[in-house]
Amino acid sequence: MPAVVGDPEAVRRIAYEFVETKAKEGVVYVEVRYNPHLFANCNVDPLQFGQKEGDLTPEKVVELVNQGLKEGERDFNIKVRSILCCLRHMPEWSPEVVELCKKYQNDTVVAIDLAGDEGLKSEVFPGHLQAYQEAVRSGIHRTVHAGEAGSASVVKEAVELLKAERIGHGYHTIDDPVLYKRLLQMDMHFEMCPWSSFITGACDSDFTKHPLIQFKKDGANCSLNNDGPLPLNAGLETDYNIAKTYMGFSEEDFMRININAARSCFLPEDEKKKLLGVLYEAYGMIDL
To answer: Is the pLDDT of residue 61 over 60?
Structure first.
């Protein structure tokens, strides 16, 4: 962060090069998430990252990221949208995050997210709850990091209190059989990230015991994702290799979870239908 906070060109370039990386991985559609406040230096704590206060606001950050993503779409021929993250330990930022989601809803941004320490309950911090309530009123899609390191109760909170449409990780949902069955029936989507779960210690270090195996067995609506590729020094291929080597994923399984990802993405319905068409064609119109 010290190299990029408050640097407009760096923010735009990071977004652009992210698209380039995903295109090289063979991705046709991606939703990238970030917290705009972490790149801003407006009203920054002078001790944070050793940065001096400047004029790069969270809104300007969103505009720069949008610019980089659009340039990447143009140059690398893939579709990209973004999700703006609230942070559990910074509830005072959440009202501004949802307002940015509203303002740029038709300009790259498709959803709001909540990430961070799952030990910090959302009901204790009104900023998060109010932001998600406003998201519901405004038709903003919602995903929440829950059940990664935290318990199944955090997943329940995400669904019932924050009205999440997707769950980031959600591994520990299976610890609550009643909740797990309910979410399977709801067709709740789970964003699974095996390599990240190993690095963070969220799951058993033995990949043959990973919750994703149970999700796959039960036909859950889940997808395979790459979490934090730069700090974890691993691309999407790493997660694919883990799933294939240790979890028994076949080519058909990979196709199925990619169809899951497409049908649970936050694109408008007409664009989602086109995306699914691209995948069905690439997969030889296999009925999954």
So the answer is: yes
pLDDT at 174 exceeding the cut of 60: yes
SS3 letters across 211-226: HHHHHHHCCCCEEECC
Residue 53 has pLDDT above 90, yes or no: no
Say yes or no to pLDDT of 261 above 60. Answer: yes
Q: Is the pLDDT of residue 234 over 90?
A: no
* Annotated active-site residue in 31, 148, 157, 165: 148
Distance (Å, rounded) from C-alpha 15 to C-alpha 29? 15
The tokens of 83 are what?
A: 């999700």
Q: How confident is the model at residue 52 (pLDDT cuts 50, 70, 90)?
A: low
Known catalytic residue: 118? no
Which pTM does this prediction carry? Answer: 0.93
Of the candidates 145, 270, 140, 158, the one whose C-alpha atom is nearest the C-alpha of residue 202 is 145
